[in-house]
Amino acid sequence: MGLSLCESILREGGSWDDLGQCCPNWAIMDRWLKRDSCCSRSGDADEGNQTGAKKKKTDLSKKRQFKEDYVLLGFTATNSDPPEALCFFCGERLARKQNTSVMLGSQKVLQKPTTTLEKALKASLAVSLLIAKAKKPFNIAEELIWPAAGMMAEIMLDKKTADQLKGVPLSHQTVSRRVSEMSADIQDQVVNKLKASQSFSLQVDESTDISGQAQLVSFVRYIDEDDIKEHILFCKKFEEHTTGEAIFNVINQFFTEQGLSWKSCMSMCTDAAASMTGKVKGLVARIKKENPDVEWTHCIIHRESLASNKMSSQLHEILNDAVKVINIIKSRPLDTRLFHRLCESMGSEHTELLLHEDVRWLSRGRIPARLFELRDEVASFLSEHGSPFATFFENTTWVAQLAYLTDIFSKLNELNMSLQGKDTNILNLYDKVAGFQKKLGLWKETCSGGYFTCFPLSDAYFSDNNYEKDTVKPVIVEHLTNLISAFKSYFPGIHEQSVQLDWIRNPFLLSEQEKTLPICLQETLIEVRVDCGLKLLFERSNVTRFWSSVKKEHPDLGKMALEKLPFGSTYLSEVSFSAMSVIKSKQRNKLNVNLEQSLITAEIVASAPRPDLSRGVGDGPKTCLETCTEGASWLEAKGGCGHALPSVLAP
After folding, report:
1. What stretches of 76-232 show up as alpha helix (H) in DSSP?
2. Angle between helices 375-384 and 313-330 (to 10 degrees)
């Protein structure tokens, strides 16, 4: 085998310099060997001349002290004092005079894993948000979503993609932490908007969850940039009593912690419970001590339900008899199955009767409707079983009154449903109640004349059975009279209150009530009225969005108009209680810590602020996943949080 050029030069007695001239690589090596030799001799000399203390100081000075910016370049800190920069991959300490190209090289190596983990973090936040919105248990992610996603990815894509999905942290502890972080983010957004708005309306209601724990829910309505927004403010449990003073203390403590002022609370909406409306110790009285200008609104839906309860003793007895008939069939599972088979054999559209519940306002209207629809099937079933209640359906007067109850309760249910809904305003609620009051007067006048076309089921029954209408007419007229009186009692002066807001309902129509405004606001209203651009905007948007736009150009008039549109009902609180019954079920009856966070993140209102899913990926508190990407050792990351490391970063 032949010799190389470098070996030939050395064998012929050539020097290292001759070799460097012939081969540049040897020249580089020669310089490196000389530098290393010099450094060694210098180190030996220093070792002989310096003391032990100085030697220790020299050794420390050779290492580069750790800085926070080194995390982004792939380095972590040691436990020494002062901390030194330790390479995340090779474990070597970074020298003081070492070139930053080493750090840049580590950054390139970390770039792909960090990007992958950021995506995993965002995916974890997105899935946690979906779980909270669906009101599902937190462990559904690791028990169902995670395996299902991996299985679908492996079947439809490939195993590598499925393995990457395993890097998304979705344990029930992680999902719980994500929901808590997102709820805190949403609550911070709402509080900041309240402070910026400087005026808001409260909605407060109290209920008991499945574990017997009393819960206080509060919603807030505030002026945002382009519209009025509504969102849940908090959900707090009571430690002891649920008195007005206790309710105030819970709200006041939250206001103090968040830096909110009672002077900014313009109005509040509650039911008429004694703890809310007591003249001395009620919540409203207690708040008025802090802010005498606050206005109180009695929930319109609650008032409608109270007014609907007014009926004569005769009709009340008919309703009780109907409930007894239903309970006979529904109380025994065997009778329920037999009745179901009977309805199927008779070709009925429905095969089940509905139970009556006092706490469910709409059930009172639905049970007589279903019973009247299946009256022939019920009569046949009761006759076969020898029940004395079968005689009810042989009495045409009893059935006629049942038909009327079905009609009038159906109309009351329609009114109740129209009053419900999100992002409603008090103008619409006033209009609907006022319209129903006028309908009651029309129905009373029509029925007094012997015409029942306004009640279709009753009218059809009278015609089909040749029933004498005069027998039941006094009962119907009396009930309508009682309803008219009850609605006037629970909604006193509703027409006048609605008329006072006509200039808000439509500022482009002249109104007598606008003369009560200060002169400066009347002048501003004239400017709004002649603005063609605002007129086009009024035709295309709703009232609240329109006045939010007016507020940008005319702050005083716009703010006054929006402040006169407070909460009209406690509908949002009732919805949150329904959501609470789903979140805190029998299987999760110990859920207390995350109940508020789950309700806030569930976004009951469509216009609610959205959590920032990028929060935690960059700025903000560091999560376990970010700690793993910022230079901690694999052993420390795996042992500290218990999370399995993604396959793309496994050592």
Report:
1. 101-133, 140, 146-156, 159-165, 172-197
2. 60
Looking up tokens 């206001």 gives: 255
Yes or no: say if 534 and 549 are a contact pair by the CB < 8 Å rule.
yes
The last residue of a domain, from among 456, 475, 495: 495
Q: Are residues 385 and 265 in the same domain?
A: no
Q: In terms of domains, do 430 and 527 share one?
A: no
Cβ atoms 613, 126 nearer than 8 A: yes
Predicted TM-score of the model (pTM)? 0.73
Q: What is the pLDDT of residue 649?
A: 29
| Residue 542 domain boundaries | 506-563
What's the distance, CA 440 to chain centroid?
38
Q: Which two tokens stand for residue 101?
A: 């190209």
| pLDDT at 310 exceeding the cut of 50 | yes
Quickly state the pLDDT bin for 442 (edges 50, 70, 90): very high
Determine contact, residues 305/416, Cβ cutoff 8 Å. yes
Q: How far is CA 2 from the centre of its chain?
A: 82
pLDDT at 59 over 70: no
> Token pair of 438, please?
């006028």
Tell me if 86 is assigned to some domain.
no
Closest residue by Cα to residue 153 from 647, 601, 516: 647
Q: 363-373 and 313-330 are packed helices; what angle lies between their axes, rounded to 10 degrees?
A: 70
- Taking the CA atoms of 79, 80, 86 and 92 in sequence, report the sign of the dihedral they define: negative
* Structural domains counted in the chain: 4
Is 277 in the same domain as 348? no
Residue 513: DSSP 8-state: G
Highest mean pLDDT among 4-18, 443-457, 635-649: 443-457
Confidence grade of residue 443 (pLDDT, cut at 50, 70, 90) = very high
What value does the mean pLDDT take over residues 433-459? 92
Question: Using DSSP, how many helices (H) and how many strands (E) does the chain show?
Answer: 31, 7
Q: Residue 331 — very low, low, confident or very high, per pLDDT cuts 50/70/90?
A: confident
Q: What is the pLDDT of residues 96-133, one digit of tens each?
A: 555 555 555 554 554 555 566 788 888 888 898 888 88
CA–chain centroid gap for 15, Å, is 82
Domain identity same for 437 and 519: no
Q: 315 and 245, same structural domain? A: no
Please state the φ and ψ torsions of residue 74, each to the nearest 5 degrees. 100, 25
Q: Is residue 63 part of a domain?
A: no
Do 211 and 290 sit in the same domain of this protein?
yes
pLDDT at 95 over 50: yes
